[in-house]
Amino acid sequence: MHVGVKVGVGLAAAMMGATLSGGAVAAASQPPPIPGMEQQGTAGPRPAEEEGHGPGAIFVGPEGAAKAMGRLQQRDTVRARWCNGRVLPRDGLNVRTGPGTGYRVVGALARGTHVTTNWDTIQRRNGYLWVQLRNSSYWIADYKTGNGNGKWYIAYSNC
Question: In Å, how far are 38, 47, 69, 75 from 53, measured between CA atoms?
Fold first, then answer.
């Protein structure tokens, strides 16, 4: 489904304040918003933990896991497939500079933040399915793979 609706996402105040090592965060100044995204909530980045922080994700059984993983075969690298949803984990979801846990955490999306992702950028790495956020070069893990199951970090409304 193609949706051209611009939906902003809220990023933590520390989104761009982290040093390259991911350690110190500039607490005094709030970074400018990323184009196409709106401030909505805050959540701190947590690079050493699971990508989605706290309870709230949607756990799926084998049938749901097969459907989520089926997105890998359905993608079309020539076009974008915009999907709208909201962040589920209670304590937020990491935002990274690329599709994988080896990329730097630059912030986190708070629970309930509305996101628009491009499902045709989907990549499987490090036990997650990664998608790129609309109007940015940032990535989130929207699904955590499991042993015949898994869990969604984003509740999609149109995909």
Answer: 21, 10, 22, 27
Is the entire prediction scored with pTM above 0.70?
no
* Cβ–Cβ under 8 Å, residues 95 and 140: yes
In this structure, how many other beta carbons lie within 10 angstroms of the beta carbon of residue 126?
A: 15
Label the pairing between strands 139-145 and 150-152.
Answer: antiparallel
- pLDDT tens, residue by residue, 37-86: 444 444 555 545 789 988 898 888 888 888 888 887 876 665 678 999 99
Q: Are 57 and 153 in contact (CB under 8 A)?
A: yes
- The Cα 101–Cα 125 span in angstroms is 8
Q: Give me the count of residues in the chain.
A: 159
Torsion angle in degrees (nearest 10) through CA of 103, 108, 111, 112:
-90
Q: What does the pLDDT look like over 103-113, one tens digit per residue?
A: 999 999 999 99
Cα 48 to its chain centre, rounded Å, is: 16
